[in-house]
Specification:
Number of domains: 1
Oligomer: single chain
Radius of gyration: 17 Å
CATH architecture: Alpha-Beta Complex
Largest sheet: 5 strands, mixed, barrel
Distance between the termini: 33 Å
Number of strands: 10
Length: 207
């Protein structure tokens, strides 16, 4: 039976359950990228197999303004919903989403990277908390000095807000998703920690 040197993985770890949440959580997190700004198809992690699958073609010509994915070992349930106030009756029971700003174009998905949390969008989708954490690529030569959402250009935050407000729109019907507000780094870090606690409750149980 061969042995493998640590930290070598003999088998590919599950992107949601098998990767670490980040090197300095909640300030710096690992982001698993599902979609890039160049994708006209929405890809999503298959939660059973850990492979990326086609979810649906994007209905509109709008593309995500940034890299888009999730933070491993996070889960949006009661604690995340509580931070959203009365608008959310529950979490969406998915990993916590993250949007990563990068100056250099990154065209590949199914990758991981380290990102520094700077803020977020409080999205309510059909009564469920579906927050979008906003982060910048760690050590990015252009965005590396950004500390808070307020340091990003207003038009970039506006694009993110518009994209997530409309990307599920179906012609002839109204949207069930809305951005209740945007928030800065301090609240975003609380959301990250709440999602980690929700994950522990759901998948790890009492210590």
């Amino acid at each position: 039976m061969p042995t493998f040197p640590a930290p070598f993985f003999r088998w590919r770890p599950h992107p949601w359950h098998g990767l670490d949440a980040g090197p300095d959580v909640p300030r710096v997190v690992t982001a698993y990228v599902e979609i890039t700004p160049f994708d006209s198809v929405k890809y999503e992690l298959d939660k059973v197999t850990g492979y990326t699958r086609v979810d649906r073609p994007q209905r509109s010509s709008s593309h995500p303004p940034t890299l888009y994915g999730f933070i491993p070992r996070t889960y949006c349930a009661e604690r995340v919903a509580a931070l959203s106030g009365p608008e959310a009756v529950r979490g969406d029971h998915d990993p916590l989403d993250v949007c990563v700003v990068s100056e250099r174009p990154i065209e590949r998905a199914d990758i991981t990277l380290d990102a520094r949390v700077v803020g977020g969008l409080q999205m309510i989708d059909n009564g469920e908390a579906d927050d979008k954490i906003v982060a910048v690529l760690r050590n990015d030569l252009f965005w590396g000095t950004v500390e808070d959402l307020s340091d990003l250009p207003d038009k970039l935050v506006e694009r993110l807000t518009h994209y997530f407000s409309t990307y599920k729109l179906v012609p002839g019907s109204g949207s069930q998703a809305s951005i209740a507000r945007t928030y800065g780094r301090e609240h975003a870090e609380k959301v990250v920690e709440a999602s980690r606690a929700d994950y522990r409750d759901e998948f790890e149980g009492p210590e």
